[in-house]
């Protein structure tokens, strides 16, 4: 279920042949790739860019990923991927996702990823205040 109390970004993608198995069904690993693209698009739609986060000397390392598969997506189909920030903490955040058929709205998968802020040397860091404020603002009612 999509949240109603925060910004939700969406992007539409075509399922490419290379993302499918011999039955033309999207391989299960590709859903995480779709989620990653949705995160990047989320940042762009909110006026930021992950490259700037990296330029500031930080990364958001994935610490956990969960996908719940409901029905297969297939080659040649358009999919809609929705993404939102579900939780912000001092050192990390959690993103939520919903992947649907672009035309019918049927749900193909839902999921979440957890991330931890790390410095270039790999050490865990607090999310810088500018970025934490940006991420936290997404969870306020619009």
SSE order and pairing:
Layout: E1 9-14, H1 30-45, H2 50-55, E2 58-69, E3 78-88, E4 92-101, E5 107-119, H3 129-137
Antiparallel strand pairs: 1-3, 2-5, 3-4, 4-5
Describe this structure in words.
- Strand 4 (92-101) and strand 5 form a beta hairpin.
- The two termini are 18 Å apart.
- The chain is 22% helix and 37% strand.
- It has one domain (9-137): Thiol Ester Dehydrase, Chain A (Roll), CATH 3.10.129.10.
- The longest helix has 16 residues, at 30-45.
- It has three helices and five strands.
- By secondary structure, the protein is of the alpha+beta class.
- The chain is globular and about 45 Å long.
> What class would the helix/strand composition place it in?
alpha+beta
> What is the rounded Rg?
16 Å
As a percent range, the share of strand residues is 35-45%
**Count of all domains:** 1
């Amino acid at each position: 279920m999509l949240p109603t109390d925060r910004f939700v970004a969406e992007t539409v993608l075509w399922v490419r042949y290379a993302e499918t198995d011999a039955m033309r069904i999207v391989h299960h690993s590709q859903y995480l790739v779709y989620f990653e693209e949705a995160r990047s698009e989320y940042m762009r739609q909110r006026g930021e860019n992950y490259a700037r986060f990296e330029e500031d000397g930080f990364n958001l390392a994935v610490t956990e990923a969960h996908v719940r598969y409901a029905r297969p997506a297939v080659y040649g189909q358009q999919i809609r991927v929705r993404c939102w920030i579900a939780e912000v903490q001092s050192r990390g955040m959690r993103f939520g996702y919903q992947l649907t058929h672009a035309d019918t709205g049927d749900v193909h998968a839902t999921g979440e990823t957890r991330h931890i802020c790390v410095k270039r040397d790999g050490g865990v860091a607090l999310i810088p205040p500018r970025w934490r404020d940006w991420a936290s603002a997404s969870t306020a009612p619009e």
